[in-house]
Amino acid sequence: MRQHKFIINFELAPGDVTVSTALARDLKLSYGDQVAVDFRTNFPSIFKANPHVTKIADDDPDAVSVTLDYRDGIISSQAGNKHHFLTWFHRHFTECTGVSVPPRFAKPDLHLTKYEKDTPPISGRYWLMFAGGKRDIIVKHWDYDRYQEVADTLTGQGVHVVQSGADRMGHLHASLDRVTSVVGWGGVRELIWQIYHSEGVIGPVTCATHMAAAFDKPCVVIAGGREEPWWAAYTNEHNSFGPAGPVVVEHKFLHTIGQLDCCKTVGCWKRQVVPDDVDGEVKHNCLNIIERPIEDQQQPRCMSMITADDVVNAVMSYYEEGILPPVAANSEVPRLVVPNAKRQTHEHKVIGDVYIPS
Length: 358
Known about the structure:
- This protein is an alpha/beta fold.
- Helices cover 27% and strands 14% of the residues.
- The chain is built from ten helices and 13 strands.
- α1 links the parallel β1 and β2.
- It is globular.
- The protein starts with a strand and ends in a 38-residue tail after the last helix.
C-alpha cells in the first residue's frame, strides 16, 4: 500500500506551533504507517525527539503540502461554538486533504530526549512564572506589581517561583524581586525543558500554557476577557475537546467572560491598551482600561478584576486537591544548574495572530 505523505506548513507563534503537534500525533495514531508527516515551521525544535514526525524532502513528488490556518476557528468560537483551538487544526487538515483525523487526546504532543528527561535544568521544586509576554498583544499582560505580590505570597508559603520568558526584541517581562530568574536563558527548546521539570506554570494565555498542557502540568492562566475559555482553556467545563477529552490535569483559567459589556458573551480579541504601534489600527485597542497615572503600566479592566489572591488560591488548590505533593518545609531555593544553553537565534521569528477580528 502506498504511503501518504504530508508536509505541513505552519509559521506562526510558538504556542500555535506547539498546539499543531497534536495533529501529527493523531494522524499517526489513526493511520500508522499508512501516513508520514513532516513540518515546515519557524520553530523546528518543538518537534525534536517526536516519533510521529518523519523527514520528507521538499521535492518528494508523493508529498502533499498543507498550510494550516485557524482564522475560521476563531470566527466560529466567537459565534458561540464551543470547540478548542487544538481541535481546529484537525478540522482544517481534513478540509484541505479529505483525510479525517479525530482528536485523540486533549493536549499537545511534546517529547524530550533522554538527557532532557533525566537532567533538570533548574534544581528543586518550582513554579514557572511569566510576568509579561509579547509586545504585540499587551492586552494579555497582567499587572506586573500583582505578579510580584503573587511571587512573594507563594514564597512565604514555601512554594518557590522561577521567572521565565524571552528577553529578545518584541517581548516585555517585568523584573521581579526575590525570585530565581531565567528570563532570556536559552530558546524554545529550553523553555520546554523548564516546563517539563516544573510543578506548574503561572502566566497569560501563551505558549507556556500549551506546553504545560502537553505534560499534564498544573497551570494558572490569567486570561481576562480576551479569549473564550472554550477556545483557549485546558478544562473540561465546556466539553470543547469532544471525544478527545477529558483533560487529565485541568488548568485554572481565570477569565471575566460575562462580567463586562465588552466581553459579555465572547472575548474581545483586542491587542493593545495604547495606540497600536504594530499596525496603527485603533479597532485593535482595548477601550476599557484602568488608568494608572503614577505607574507605567495601563491595564484592561478585565485583567484588573483578577486579583493576586485569585492567582495564589488557584496555585495552592493543586496542593489542597492532592494533584501535587504537599509543600516541603525548608525546601531548597531553585537555581539554574545548566547555565550555558545557546540561544536558538534561527527560531526568533515570531508572527502574531493569523486572524484579528474587527
